[in-house]
Amino acid sequence: MRFQQMKEDYERELEDAREQGKQQGAKLGEARGEARGEARAVLRVLIARGFSPSPAQQAKVTQCSDPKVLTEWLTRAATLDSLDAVFAE
Fold first, then answer.
1. Structural domain containing residue 62
2. Mean pLDDT per 10-residue section of the chain, whose length is 89 residues
3. Quick one: 13 exposed, middle or buried, by C-beta within 10 A (0-12, 13-18, 19+)?
4. CB atoms within 10 A of CB 80
């Protein structure tokens, strides 16, 4: 009887851990997707405004996963008059 209870407890904990893993994975995937979308928006705005981001600048944008940085770049891309100003630290 004790073994059966231990087995049931283990299976319940294992299922809980799996569910937590799924939820964390979904959140991570969502964050990555949002970052990719924001990065594409930065580049689209720059190109629409007539800028030609260098391959290094494009890589910098597409490799960034910090939503605050991407939002700042998007705002700057829409309002500033040079690529240097957009990517100034």
1. 2-86
2. 80 82 81 90 97 96 95 96 94
3. exposed
4. 16
